[in-house]
Amino acid sequence: MPQPPVEAADGPSRRNVVEGMRVVWTDPFLRASTAMIGLSNVVIQVVLLLILLELKNSDHPPWTVGLVLGMAGVGGIAGAALATWLIARIPSQLGYRRALWAWTAAGADRVQRQSLCACRVLGWGRLRGRCQ
């Protein structure tokens, strides 16, 4: 009985990449989740860059930059370890929806505070609350 052909170990073939892209593109859930995860990754990287620039410009000691980068790595490792446990217990679509709602709730407060500050600065009515 002949053995199936084995692909080269130095990476995926173009055919596999195209097939994977086709699967993602034809499935609405995978398409949406891939786009959202990609965009959130860009946002997180920009926020990390802004934090590092703020640390550099505010005369913090150099070790604080290492601490911030190290904590990002620890968070990534903890998330990878927790993902296996979560995937076994929560259906993918439910977990994805909960994560999106959690991000929405976390961002809504921040957006509201920034909007209140902008309105106060522009003098649009008397608004109660604090700008933070």
H/E element order: HHHH
Computed Rg? 22 Å
Q: Which oligomerization state do the chains in this entry correspond to?
A: single chain
Q: Would you report the number of β strands?
A: 0
Low-confidence stretches: 124-128
Structural class: mainly alpha
Number of helices: 4
Largest sheet: none
Shape designation: extended
Q: Percent of residues in beta strands?
A: under 5%
- Tell me roughly what share of residues is in helical segments: over 70%
Keywords, separated by commas or semicolons:
132 residues; mainly alpha; single chain; extended
Structure overview:
This protein has helices at residues 14-26, 28-57, 63-89, 92-122. It has a domain at 14-98. The model is unreliable at 124-128 (pLDDT under 50). α1 (14-26) packs across α2 (28-57) and α2 packs antiparallel against α3. It has 132 residues and is mostly helical.
Structure summarized in a few sentences:
The protein contains four helices and no strands. With 132 residues, it is mainly α. It has a domain at 14-98.
Task: Explain the layout of strands and helices.
Blueprint: H1 14-26, H2 28-57, H3 63-89, H4 92-122
